Structure formats: structure tokens, C-alpha cells
Amino acid sequence: MFPMMFRTFRLLACLVFCAASALVGTPNAATQSVRTLSGEWIVVSSPINGQMASPKGTTLGFPDRDMIFNQQGDLRTGVVLREDVGPNVRPLGVWRVMGDQLSATFQLWCPDANGPCGSIVMRGQFVRDDKINGTMTAFFDQPDDTTPTGYDTWTFSFVGNRVPGSAPGGSN
To answer: For residue range 77-108, what is the model confidence (pLDDT) as tens digits?
Structure first.
């Protein structure tokens, strides 16, 4: 009888110890930082596997993009500043963050119907509160039966850094 009680006590003590360790070692919502894209970011894109253009030959180049993300309540919007083509060219977008994961979608600026029109989808994660990385996919408004989407698509990588002082509240 004594050995059985000892085993039961030992098992119970082990369970209590494991439960207490799990509670102490698990970060709660108060200790985790809440991530946001709000602010100004410089986002640099680069080719993946040397693919400099889409299958149909459309390219956006690999420029730095100045992106501004805003949040007013549940409304999360963004603009891409396109000083390279004019001060009033600001493709619009929307974004969301879930934990460390982020996604954003922007329209492509198309000066004429013969240029690359479509949209950009960004998917990535936070490396730190002020640094993001991931992939962007351009969906061009040009049919392409060889892709699963039925449109000319092109995926490339990105790295983004928050402009110092542009975080909500003016600090990083």
C-alpha cells in the first residue's frame, strides 16, 4: 500500500511542478509586444532565384519603395509614395497584422492600358518591431494560362525598415 501511495504522491507532485513551470514559462499577452505596420517604411525588393521579370516579361524593377501605413480604429490603409513618377501618384492599399505575421495588398499604378496594371500582395513577418521581411507577388492584368491564377504573376522577396521616429507615438 505504501509504495502505491508514494507513486501517487510522486505523480501528483510531478504534475503540479509541470503545470507551475508551464504557467511561469509561458509569456502572456501583457509581456508580448503588439506589432503594427503603422508608420513609414522603406521597403526594398529583390529577385528570387534570379527571376528579374514575370513569365510574360513584365517587370517592376527592384526599387526601394517608401510606404506609409495608417490605422484609424479598425481601418488599416497604406500608400506607396511614387516620387519617381510624380508627387500625386500614390497607389492605395490595405493591411493586417496577426501576431508576428503581416499581409498587405496594393493596387499597381498603371499610367496607360499598355503598362503593367494589377495588384501586389505582400506576405511576411516581423523580424523586430522596426524590421519586416517576406515575399511580394505581383498579379498583372494580363492572361497567362500557364499559371494557377490564370494571370501573369511574379513573386519576389522584400525587406522593410521602419523610418526612425515614424512609429505610433513617434518612437520605435
So the answer is: 999 998 777 778 889 999 999 999 999 999 98
Residue 112 resides in a domain: yes
Question: pTM above 0.90?
Answer: no
Contacts of 107 (CB under 8 A, 6+ apart): 91, 92, 93, 118, 119, 120
- Grid cell 502505491 is found at 4
Please report, for the domain that includes residue 75, its CATH number.
Answer: 2.40.128.120
